[in-house]
User: Fold this.
Amino acid sequence: MNTGSNCLKQLIRLVAAMAVLCTTHAWAQDTYPSRPITLINPWAAGSSTDIMARAVAEQLYKQLGQSVVVTSRDGGSGVIGMTVLMQAPADGLTLAFTPMTPVTIQPHHLKDLKLSPDTIQPVCGITENILGISVRADSPFKTLTDLIAAGKSKSLSYGSPGPNSAPFLAVDDLARHQKLDVVHIPFKGDAASIQELLAGRLDFATSIAASAAPQVKAGTVRLLAVASERRHPGFAEVPTLREFGIDVTQLSFAGWFAPKGTPPQILAKLDAACAMAVKSDAVKEAAQKSNQILAYQPLPQWDKRVHDEFQKQGAAYRAAGGVRQ
Assistant:
């Protein structure tokens, strides 16, 4: 009889403890975020990524009621900032906004890099970055056909936002496809390569089209082609590489990421806030002014895209013989 009574008491204590644990866990989720959020921009300050990160951060503050501090941790084509994110506590208080590049491309090129869709948690997709190839307005290359013809007869120099960045891979694929003689000069971000292009020290540049937009609109730079599946709506007259009969496409989408292990309830709350932010007039206005394309993808879709792109880039790297750099 005493044994049964003791068992009953133990059962009651266990149920009570579980109830307290569940209540405490639920309370912790309901009060998220309890402190300001840090949003890492793994690219240069003032870049198109930085502009969108700050616009979305302001809306995140309105949705969650905590300030969101954007901090630039650029370098290594996004690797430095995303490594900082990977090592941060999985409490939803440290996030990053970046193109997929450091998670889907760089791990295949850099030995011992631990970044991957299995070590970083995709949260939501926010923009599509259409990649472009541009020259100075006074360049002898009036069209992409002119540039290709020149690249088959002499060496051309070009700048990109960094080794193994998506813009670099677009031109690397183009050069392989068309057997061009090109010399790659990497920079820290789009702005630096575009400035070198304007200074006359590069034959052409490859970047996010939005990064070159101010110069294109000012008439100092000419956009020759884009490497995406569709034309940039802000530059509808500029064809895709495929429209030139060149089977080269390089997609680039950007979104939020969190440390792996972030609780599902927090991820759901962030995804919901992300959806509301992208719909806001302020973010739409920021996208329009900076020539960026909003393309919200909820967590399941964004997570799948990042994983699929990781597999695709790995296959492309192996097909190229593992010699890209």
Remarks:
- The chain has twelve helices and eleven strands.
- The radius of gyration is 23 Å.
- The chain has two domains: 35-128+252-319, 131-244.
